[in-house]
Queue: 2 jobs
Job 1
Amino acid sequence: MSGIPGPVVTGTIAYLLLGVVAVGGIYGSRATGMLSKDNADIGNVVVSLACFSMWLFWLCAWLHQWHPLIAPIYEG
């Protein structure tokens, strides 16, 4: 039985760290007064959805290339 492929784990951790850094930036902006509470709440939602969407797009692209259904035919 094979586990989760290494690149999937690495990519997931990378996107998770990206999301944590981005949400940390929102909290930092809220703490310094650059963002109001309402704008910080909206920023948290937008950043979370954006990170999840980027991760899902990357995962789909990676999985489609992992075991292609159609092999390329080279004519030469």
Note: Residues 6-64 form one domain.
Job 2
Amino acid sequence: MASSGTALDPAAQAAPPEDGGDARSFMLHEGSDSGSVPGDDVLVREIGGRVDIRPVIHPDRKPPQRNVGKAWYHFKRYIKDKEQTNEVVAVFDNLPWRELHDEAAAFLRTERGREIYRAEPYLPTFLDDHETLRRTPKGSFAHAYCDFMEREGLTAAGMVEATKAREDDNYFDDGVNWYIERLRDFHDILHIVTGYGRDILGEQCIFAYMYHQRPSPGHLYLAWIGALMVRAQALRSRAPIIGALREARRNGKGCPRIVEQPIQELFALPLEEVRARFNTPTPLVYNRVMDIFREEGIDPHAFLARQED
């Protein structure tokens, strides 16, 4: 994978101290031969002068299981406060993408997958370094990302914190975990790629769009129930709320799996070029909903706030 030749060169991005040094690590050798070729089921990368070796899939990892009742419990907690990211994660955990482990392993057994694995060990450090990201030209995807995160008061580290309890319960230091962490880290990236806001409907549209990135029932569950609740609270509005959700689902079908793209290289590119690469058109129906809400004096951030247990 060619270097971007900018300040965003992946080789310049340091991993956090815990990455590769965690006591739970499968295997870590200092002074090992980093030029050796790993087998199909073993991953090798260098972190801070050390060689990290881990399995693609840890032998103790179990297939994901579904629990609709628990998913509903966590969804009710989420709609009372959409900032509770841990509740969204719990919905996904209880309505998981069953093929996730196999899909992650298949990607990491390709040469492209191994190149990205070696180049991008830990994205939150990269994503939260806005000083470096802003060294790219104006109009870059990096600038759009920094503008969005700063305006919304968000950090990639905050997303990590929100999922910590879940990771402690289900942690295996393998390639699948690396893949799952990337799925976590690109949620906010999708807001910039798609143009959806962080209002309630915008978040439901992101979930619908993401179904083709991470096809877990949890995404459609959240998307449809949330959108129907918005529709129920805005019965007098002429806004095409359900149409916006359907548009998001259609738009998501043409986007390649972003978790499997070289994120650090893409950040240096112009925003519109990145959107073109991901085949993501402007969300016309969603934008129309936002325009109608403004005309009708409806606050798109206020929906679901009155829901009770």
Note: The chain has one domain: 10-296.
